[in-house]
Write a structure and sequence with these properties.
Layout lengths: L2 H17 L9 H23 L12 H6 L25
Length: 94
Protein backbone atom coordinates (compact mmCIF):
# COMPACT_ATOMS: atom_id res chain seq x y z
CA UNK A 1 0.00 0.00 0.00
CA UNK A 2 1.34 3.39 -0.92
CA UNK A 3 0.85 6.66 0.88
CA UNK A 4 -1.91 7.73 -1.52
CA UNK A 5 -3.93 4.60 -0.79
CA UNK A 6 -3.46 5.16 2.94
CA UNK A 7 -4.71 8.73 2.65
CA UNK A 8 -7.68 7.50 0.61
CA UNK A 9 -8.53 4.95 3.31
CA UNK A 10 -8.34 7.65 5.98
CA UNK A 11 -10.67 9.90 3.96
CA UNK A 12 -13.16 7.11 3.24
CA UNK A 13 -13.10 6.03 6.87
CA UNK A 14 -13.71 9.59 8.04
CA UNK A 15 -16.65 9.93 5.67
CA UNK A 16 -18.14 6.67 6.89
CA UNK A 17 -17.50 7.50 10.55
CA UNK A 18 -18.55 11.12 10.71
CA UNK A 19 -20.66 12.04 7.67
CA UNK A 20 -23.07 9.11 7.29
CA UNK A 21 -25.89 8.98 9.81
CA UNK A 22 -27.45 5.56 10.06
CA UNK A 23 -29.34 3.99 12.94
CA UNK A 24 -28.72 0.37 12.04
CA UNK A 25 -28.38 -1.83 15.10
CA UNK A 26 -26.45 -4.58 13.33
CA UNK A 27 -23.65 -2.36 11.97
CA UNK A 28 -21.97 0.50 13.75
CA UNK A 29 -20.74 2.81 10.98
CA UNK A 30 -18.72 4.97 13.36
CA UNK A 31 -16.67 1.98 14.50
CA UNK A 32 -16.30 0.75 10.91
CA UNK A 33 -15.06 4.18 9.78
CA UNK A 34 -12.53 4.36 12.60
CA UNK A 35 -11.26 0.87 11.76
CA UNK A 36 -10.81 1.89 8.09
CA UNK A 37 -8.97 5.07 9.17
CA UNK A 38 -6.64 3.01 11.40
CA UNK A 39 -5.98 0.68 8.46
CA UNK A 40 -5.01 3.74 6.38
CA UNK A 41 -2.65 5.00 9.11
CA UNK A 42 -1.09 1.53 9.40
CA UNK A 43 -0.66 1.37 5.62
CA UNK A 44 1.12 4.74 5.56
CA UNK A 45 3.37 3.66 8.41
CA UNK A 46 4.25 0.35 6.71
CA UNK A 47 4.97 2.05 3.38
CA UNK A 48 7.23 4.57 5.16
CA UNK A 49 9.11 1.77 6.93
CA UNK A 50 9.64 -0.10 3.67
CA UNK A 51 10.73 3.01 1.76
CA UNK A 52 13.11 4.27 4.47
CA UNK A 53 14.86 1.38 6.21
CA UNK A 54 16.94 2.25 9.23
CA UNK A 55 20.65 2.22 8.79
CA UNK A 56 22.35 -0.54 10.62
CA UNK A 57 25.41 0.29 12.67
CA UNK A 58 27.50 -2.49 11.19
CA UNK A 59 30.89 -1.31 10.05
CA UNK A 60 32.25 -2.91 6.94
CA UNK A 61 35.94 -3.67 6.75
CA UNK A 62 37.36 -2.34 3.52
CA UNK A 63 39.96 -4.11 1.49
CA UNK A 64 43.30 -2.32 2.13
CA UNK A 65 44.29 -2.49 -1.54
CA UNK A 66 41.13 -0.63 -2.54
CA UNK A 67 41.62 1.89 0.23
CA UNK A 68 45.23 2.48 -0.88
CA UNK A 69 43.99 3.19 -4.40
CA UNK A 70 42.09 6.25 -3.20
CA UNK A 71 44.57 7.53 -0.63
CA UNK A 72 46.17 10.85 -1.52
CA UNK A 73 49.54 12.17 -0.43
CA UNK A 74 50.66 15.78 -0.47
CA UNK A 75 53.09 16.76 -3.22
CA UNK A 76 56.74 16.64 -2.26
CA UNK A 77 57.56 19.99 -3.79
CA UNK A 78 55.31 23.00 -3.70
CA UNK A 79 55.37 25.88 -6.16
CA UNK A 80 57.90 28.57 -5.19
CA UNK A 81 56.23 31.40 -7.08
CA UNK A 82 52.56 32.38 -7.20
CA UNK A 83 50.59 31.02 -10.09
CA UNK A 84 49.00 33.65 -12.33
CA UNK A 85 45.44 32.72 -13.20
CA UNK A 86 44.60 35.96 -14.99
CA UNK A 87 43.33 35.36 -18.52
CA UNK A 88 45.95 36.14 -21.14
CA UNK A 89 44.02 38.95 -22.78
CA UNK A 90 43.84 40.79 -19.44
CA UNK A 91 47.48 40.45 -18.40
CA UNK A 92 49.74 43.48 -18.38
CA UNK A 93 52.48 43.17 -20.96
CA UNK A 94 55.85 43.25 -19.23
Amino acid sequence: MRIGAGIALIAIGAIIAFAIRDTSESLNLTALGIIIMLAGVAGIWVSYQIANPRRRSEHKVLDPSVEKQYRTTPPEQVATRPIDVTPTHLRDEE
